[in-house]
Design a protein that fits this description.
single chain; 4-stranded antiparallel beta sheet; 3 domains
Length: 416
């Protein structure tokens, strides 16, 4: 039988050995600690500030780690992310060959890549530079850069910031994002067809001035002036910039063509409540206006060289159309499934009206149209959606659309 002294010696020795083992484990076998640098926040920053933000987070997956519905759905229409998003584009990678949905969260401005039709895929963080409340994203440089617009902390100033996104890397470390501010209170901004330049409008006491610049806003030069303040800008063709008055059911609208080199301005179309877009060759203009005879809004295709016109077999808002990236004759449009009164577009812009849309294809060469998808209809998938924006993959295999209001991002398989 052990004495109390012997028992104390045995217990003390055991404790000493246990402490030594814990010390050895702590020094040599414990996991290395992870230092996470908070993401860079941009809000209320002064204009024309150029910085490079290095994103040091190692989290390259979705915040909740769950598998998005887009990866498990085999239906034609599938969810990519619940949103809300500021904007999205579709890009393709060659190593491996994959189509990616690149989107920007509206809440924080973080940029993500989601591979489409890749089992088990989750979003990868591209940039975690924080820009709360972005209202619009303009994609540049084949999706490798974007300009975000948001309201500054004063509640009135419109800020526009260029984000040069880092290239993909196999490392868990996120690369640096290049940041460049453009002038405050840009009325509207558009990207050139190659995404390497921008055109934007600034308000003046006499109307508005139009500028062109590199995609990051540097090298800006004044190109033209107009005695109009309520105008929008597009850059559909290399040599042609379009400027149009904002649509208003009770007002006559005008569309102007601006030479992107000389700045010469020429009127192209006019009509009540006019809205219009042009194809990349500036051969055809798709426009909608109120008919002087029926007082209804109709959509037409206008041939620039001949002046010939013909009504489309369906009635989309031109701003809800996008031209094919794979062919020179293709176009995709979202259009309401039901008849809408002529003043509907004004209410739609104000957020006071909504309509479920279907997506149609249209061939500019033979004027043929076909129904592509009707979200929430039959067994196609998705939910009934008021479509705000669309994007096409470079090979036209996928189309993405953002829903108005909730700003969810959905995908459509154009080829199964």
């Amino acid at each position: 039988m052990l004495t109390k002294t012997q028992l104390y010696i045995i217990i003390g020795g055991g404790i000493f050995i246990l402490v030594c083992m814990m010390a050895v484990w702590f020094l040599f076998f414990r996991p290395a600690s992870t230092n996470v640098t908070p993401s860079t926040t941009l809000f209320g920053t002064s204009v024309n500030n150029t910085t490079t933000a290095t994103n040091n987070t190692s989290d390259n997956t979705a915040a909740n780690g769950t598998l998005p519905a887009a990866q498990s759905s085999t239906q034609k229409i599938f969810e990519i992310t619940q949103g809300p998003i500021a904007g999205a584009t579709l890009i393709q990678t060659l190593h491996p060959t994959t189509t990616l949905a690149r989107y920007i969260n509206q809440d924080d401005g973080h940029v993500y890549d989601m591979p489409l039709d890749v089992a088990g895929a989750v979003p990868r963080v591209v940039s975690d530079v924080t820009i709360p409340g972005a209202s619009r994203a303009l994609w540049l440089e084949a999706g490798n850069a974007a300009i975000l617009q948001y309201i500054d902390t004063d509640g009135t100033t419109v800020k526009s910031v260029y984000l040069g996104l880092p290239t993909a890397t196999s490392s868990a470390q996120i690369g640096a994002t290049r940041i460049q501010f453009l002038p405050d209170n840009i009325i509207d901004i558009a990207a050139s067809p190659d995404g390497k330049s921008v055109a934007y409008l600034l308000k003046t006491s006499n109307g508005s001035d139009g500028y062109t610049a590199r995609s990051d806003g540097t090298g800006a030069k004044k190109l033209f002036s107009l005695p109009l303040a309520q105008v929008l800008i597009q850059w559909p063709a290399t040599k042609t910039i379009l400027v149009s008055t904002k649509s208003d059911f009770n007002s006559e609208g005008m569309l102007f063509a601006v030479n992107s080199t000389s700045g010469s301005v020429a009127p192209v179309l006019y009509g009540q409540d006019l809205t219009a877009i042009a194809d990349p060759s500036f051969t055809n203009i798709i426009y909608q206006a109120v008919s002087q005879t029926t007082n209804d809004k109709s959509t037409y295709i206008h041939q620039v060289k001949t002046g010939g016109e013909a009504p489309l077999p369906f009635n989309p808002f031109p701003e809800q159309c996008i031209f094919s990236t794979a062919t020179s004759t293709g176009m995709y449009c979202a259009a309401p499934l039901s008849y809408e009164a002529p003043g509907f577009l004004d209410l739609w812009h104000q957020g006071a009206a909504s309509a479920a849309d279907a997506i149609y294809s249209f061939n500019l060469q033979n004027d043929s149209a076909a129904l592509v998808a009707a979200p929430g209809s039959g067994n196609q998938g998705g939910t009934a959606s008021d479509i705000l924006e669309m994007a096409l993959s470079p090979d036209d295999h996928y189309l993405s659309f953002t829903t108005k209001g909730s700003r969810e991002l959905w995908g459509v398989r154009l080829t199964q």
